[in-house]
Amino acid sequence: MNWPLNIHGFAVDLVTGDPDRMRRARAFVEAGLRSGTLAPVVDRTFDLAEIVRAHRHLESNAQLGKVVVTVTHERG
Questions:
Q1: CA-CA to 49 of 20 to 30 Å: which in 22, 35, 40, 72?
Q2: Around 75, how many Cα atoms within 13 Å sit in the side-chain half-sphere?
Q3: In terms of domain of life, where is this protein from (predicted)?
Q4: Higher pLDDT residue, 62 or 6?
């Protein structure tokens, strides 16, 4: 089967010790997100109250992308 697949990796530990490299890496990622060149794949979103379900979903290895947990902060 021929799948149109691109795999890109980024080793954060290679740049975090060098402030200039970290700045350039951050600028690269931010520009990619703004332009749409980099777009995270979100498999599923859970509310914090569903954290147990979110964890079980991760443990099942059924996700295809990131699992997001949303946190709502109420000012009081």
A1: 40
A2: 0
A3: Bacteria
A4: 62
